[in-house]
Design a protein that fits this description.
By secondary structure, this protein is an alpha/beta fold. The protein has 5 helices and 5 strands, in the order E-H-E-H-E-H-E-H-E-H. The radius of gyration is 13 Å and the shape is globular. The relative contact order is 0.16.
């Protein structure tokens, strides 16, 4: 990426490999510079070296789940822009996503979502 420094850097945190790959590809095709992590611990490491503009994180993950990850990311990089996504789990997305916003996420996405919905949310968060 020659234009890497001009491009918006996004870190995708998602434990489901096939969904993560689709997401990463969608973002790359939309012109973003993308890195990925499989869980919250990896996300914190990547955040330090990659210094993303936006982190898109799943909520329900093994090891370190999304809500804890959001708190940790905010602690190491105050002001970082986070988008939380969730397909629910036992109680549906409604229980987790409002909590993610309370903890500092700038926006939430309910899975499954369309590419244009995601791009809209990213642009909104970037400009906020």
């Amino acid at each position: 990426h020659k234009r890497g420094y001009l491009m918006t850097k996004i870190l995708v945190v998602e434990d489901d490999v096939s969904f993560r790959n689709v997401l990463v590809q969608m973002l790359k095709n939309s012109g973003y510079f993308v890195q990925q992590a499989g869980d919250g611990d990896q996300a914190l490491e990547k955040c330090c070296e990659f210094d993303p503009d936006i982190v898109i994180t799943d909520i329900i993950m093994p090891n370190k789940e999304g809500l804890e990850t959001i708190q940790d990311l905010m602690a190491i990089k105050p002001g970082i822009k986070i988008i939380a996504m969730s397909g629910g789990g036992k109680y549906g997305p409604y229980s987790y996503l409002p909590l993610a916003l309370k903890l500092g996420a700038k926006a939430v996405l309910e899975k499954p979502f369309m590419r244009n919905e995601m791009i809209e949310v990213i642009e909104k968060v970037l400009n906020s």
